[in-house]
Amino acid sequence: MPEVRPESNFQHFVRLKRAGAKGIVVEGDSWFAFPALLRVSLIQHLIKAYGDQATWFQLQSNGDEAREMMCGEQYTEFLNLQHRLRDANVAVDAILFSGGGNDIVGASLLPLLNDYQDGMDYMQCINHTRFEARLAAIKLAYEELAHLRDDYQPQAWIFTHAYDYAVVSGKPVHFLCFAIGPWIKQYMEEEKGIVNNVIQQKIIDHLLSQFDDLHTALEQTHENWCYVRTQGTLTRNDWGDELHPTEEGFAKIAAKFRAALEEKLPGLTSV
């Protein structure tokens, strides 16, 4: 959901960029926007690591899908930012984009699964035709991101990631008296009858491995594109809930991003 962002945010970003800071635009989902009251998110770890070496224009929002971010109101907000940056003669250094996870979990997971029948293995539980179509739709969103970058900020590096192998635990996010989620286990069990824990995990691992392939292909296709390989970083204890790392887990993912950012953006160094 797009937010009304104060004009001062844009002016602050432009001022620091002109003063020599690296200009970084952030768009994405809860891996970039996780509430600070609950744990330090990936982006907050990066902001802390770089101090005044970087200025950040943040568009990320919890629950965003890749397909939503590159269409409708959110696309318009991102496009308008590119117009304003170009009109202000501001060349950003990087665009960090996190998207695709919400496109395949929660209710969005249901069309990708078949109803369980006795004797089915994990691959038979996946509706491969629909999953391939979903991946194609996600890829189109990333391609649109590439087109916008090429049109407005061709010098900017795009940094993406493919999350990590989420643990199908049924564990939600707890905030005060509220629970948000879970996003995987209950849908598999209550809607599709997939109750075997091993099969559940193999399904998610397969979907995410295909997501990894998608990101690898995008990196190979587009110039100035860095796929930050975060899969395989987290242990089971690094997951705070079914979809998000703990604060320490986010720090591990941030370390992968720091290595990539510092390789591609000369002069950027963790403090």
Cα separation of the termini: 33 Å
Report on the biggest sheet: 5 strands, parallel
* Assembly type: single chain
- Measured by DSSP, the beta-strand proportion falls in 5-15%
* Content-based structural category: alpha/beta
What does this 3D model show about the protein?
The protein is an alpha/beta fold. It has one domain: 3-Layer(aba) Sandwich (Rossmann fold), CATH 3.40.50.1110. 45% of the residues lie in helices and 12% in strands. The chain is built from nine helices and seven strands; from the N terminus they run H-E-H-H-E-H-H-E-H-E-E-E-H-H-E-H. It has helices at residues 7-18, 30-33, 42-50, 66-69, 72-87, 128-152, 185-192, 197-221, 247-264; strands at residues 22-28, 54-58, 94-98, 157-161, 173-175, 178-180, 225-228. The strands form two sheets. Strands 2-1-3-4-7 form a five-stranded parallel β-sheet, with helices on both faces. The chain is globular, with a radius of gyration of 19 Å. The mean pLDDT is 95.
